[in-house]
Specification:
Distance between the termini of chain B: 90 Å
Structural class of chain A: mainly alpha
Helix content of chain B: under 10%
Number of helices of chain B: 3
Distance between the termini of chain A: 65 Å
Structural class of chain B: mainly beta
Radius of gyration of chain B: 22 Å
Number of strands of chain B: 27
Order of helices and strands of chain B: HHEEEEEEEHEEEEEEEEEEEEEEEEEEEE
Strand content of chain B: 35-45%
Oligomer: heterodimer
Strand order of the largest sheet of chain B: 4-5-6-7
Chain lengths: 203, 392
């Protein structure tokens, strides 16, 4: 827990008044961040397992999950620990869904997936279950719940880290390809440019 | 094929931006860690008021000045103001003894709820029949939700609703002192078992006034006269000050386990008084403000101690080297507060200006100490010295 405490000190305010201590073990991040990271971890698991189709209403709903963080995150609406964590969970699901799009399409998983209604239902049941479970474990859980939450928080951070790095990696690769195509490669049918020359100079 | 790629990349960018914004914003989500309340002097009205310091913009703003005139005549006692944040972080509670306009009544307390940012009305309440009201302000007030809990007369607990103004007085079997809890919505209490020491600390139900003990310090453990200093943020460990007045030690008591004693905190020729204390968020260190008088010296040093709960030696950080001499009963005028994230400590020397001796103008300040800095770098926000008493 001490390692996690230092790690999350970089990304969370760790306001002790807004942090659960199940079984007397203070969690490494606040209630909202607990929801976010646990939500992100579970969301990645559900995306991998159920492979929901990432388009239409599904994306709109996850966009709404992200927008919801604005009034709650900036304290425009009053909220208790349970609501704070639940909003974190929804935000985590929204983030993972959006960050899953590019790697999922490259892997050919999202467009190929055509989940049955039961799978979509299972996915959203997972969202609701996580949003209810996190506050329940934080409020009434003991030492085991603290360890489980700590593990899930860490897993969620790793998932978000990997997805962020992957997306940035894909973004840079795409940008590099675009730059090569635009600036270095010859126009179709034209002669190859000499080294150090742009395609225009080669003519 | 190109359209989904652009859509996916755009949404991925939205996701990345949301994550970055969330992480950057989270560290300032707690409004009470971003801003610090402290008592100050308002030279325009010659009164004592409450200011709020924004740690981000590094600016101070006068927030509230009750109509309490000071320095009208020599020997005037300072009206003690206790400002503190309400749990919602949008308004502050300011309490002072006496009624609006007079600070001389010692059996009543005035309470104002002041919105920060000027949104909403200022609510003003007056509580009568509260003996020794000024003493109620020596420790942070016990606020839970919209309710303020105070010790009343004859073993009663007084509950004031900070929205409706409803007052309820509940008789108890013992002299119950409501105690500002480090846990949200779980107010605490302390009961002194006997004059020889011995304490009980627990949770106080604000609805039913039922008491649930969590820590008991027996008379044999208490090492003589002392008192409750602080409760850890998980509500499991209590710190008590013990020992004789000049050579205090701190006792850490967790549940039914035997009390652990801190190492010696002062040298033999020193007189050390502790004012208040707060645990670090993880409970591994107790921060306690101190006043140190040395022999017959006319000045005192003031600062804070960092006392590890595992028995390691305490660290002493002095903020004012040559401050006015304070006796033990006045040490409470120098009180620290630790931020919720445990990374900063604040203390205002406002009331030292009234103590016997001289407080240098550059020592009259709000001190903000960076607890993440190994040298405990302190930032000073100047507070104007109080107006000099008019000569008769």
């Amino acid at each position: 827990m001490e390692f996690l405490e230092h790690l999350f000190g970089w990304v969370c305010g760790q306001n002790a008044e807004h942090t659960w201590a199940p079984g007397g073990l203070l969690l490494p991040c606040c209630q909202r961040c607990t929801g976010l990271y646990v939500g992100a971890g579970v969301a990645a698991l559900l995306h991998r397992w159920l492979r929901p189709r990432l388009s239409g209403r599904f994306l709109e709903l996850h966009g709404a999950f992200l927008v919801l963080m604005v009034p709650f995150g900036f304290h425009w609406l009053s909220q208790g620990p349970a609501l704070r964590a639940a909003m974190g969970v929804l935000f985590g699901f929204g983030l993972v869904t959006f960050l899953w799009l590019v790697p999922g399409a490259r892997a050919g998983s999202s467009d190929a997936a055509r989940p049955a209604a039961a799978a979509t239902l299972a996915y959203f049941a997972g969202v609701a279950f996580t949003a209810a479970l996190v506050p329940a474990l934080g409020t009434w859980g003991g030492g085991t719940a603290a360890v489980c939450l700590g593990g899930l928080i860490f897993a969620g951070l790793m998932v978000l880290g990997v997805l962020a790095v992957t997306n940035v990696g894909f973004g840079l690769t795409t940008a590099a390809r675009w730059a090569r195509r635009t600036l270095v490669l010859p126009h179709p049918g034209g002669p190859a440019p000499a080294v150090g020359q742009t395609p225009g100079q080669g003519k | 094929m190109k359209q989904p790629t652009v859509r996916n990349s755009t949404l991925a960018l939205v996701g990345l931006a949301s994550l970055v914004i969330y992480i950057l914003a989270c560290t300032s989500f707690s409004p009470d860690d971003r801003r610090v309340l402290y008592p100050t002097f308002d030279s325009a009205s010659r009164g004592v008021g409450v200011a709020v310091y924004d740690r981000n913009s590094k600016r101070s703003e006068l927030l509230f000045v009750p109509h309490l005139r000071v320095g009208e005549k020599p020997g005037d006692e300072p009206p003690l103001l206790r400002p503190q944040w309400l749990p919602d972080g949008r308004s502050v509670l300011v309490a002072w003894p006496g009624t609006e306009g007079t600070a001389d009544s010692d059996d009543s307390l005035s309470v104002a709820v002041v919105p920060v940012g000027g949104r909403g009305p200022v609510r003003l309440f007056h509580l009568a029949d509260l003996p020794d009201a000024a003493a109620r302000l020596s420790l942070p007030l016990c606020v839970t939700g919209n309710r303020l809990l105070l010790q009343g007369e004859s073993n009663t607990v007084v509950r004031l609703d900070l929205v409706t103004g409803e007052v309820k007085r509940q008789a108890c079997a013992n002299e119950v002192i409501p105690y500002a809890s480090p846990l949200p919505n779980r107010p605490c209490y302390a009961i002194e078992k006997s004059a020889d020491g011995g304490f009980e600390v627990g949770f106080l139900d604000p609805e039913t006034f039922a008491l649930t003990p969590i820590v008991r310090l027996d008379v044999e453990e208490s090492l003589g006269d002392g008192g409750l200093l602080a409760l850890s943020r998980d509500g499991r460990t209590a710190a008590f000050v013990a020992g004789n007045g000049n050579q205090p030690v701190i006792l850490f008591k967790e549940g039914r386990k035997p009390a652990r004693k801190s190492p010696k905190l002062a040298a033999d020729d020193e007189k050390l008084s502790l004012a208040n204390a707060q645990f670090s968020p993880r409970g591994e260190v107790l921060y306690a403000s101190f006043v140190r008088n040395h022999g017959d010296a006319t000045n005192a040093a003031l600062g804070f101690l960092e006392v590890p709960t595992d028995g390691k030696p305490a660290r002493r950080v002095t903020l004012i080297e040559r401050g006015p001499k304070l006796d033990e009963k006045d040490a409470f005028l120098f009180q620290i507060a630790v931020s919720h994230d445990g990374k900063a400590l604040a203390v205002a020397s406002t009331y030292l200006a009234y103590a016997e001796g001289t407080l240098r103008s550059d020592d009259c300040a709000l001190f903000l100490v960076d607890l993440t800095d190994r040298r405990r770098k302190a930032t000073k926000v100047p507070i104007p010295l109080p107006p000099k008493p008019k000569s008769n």
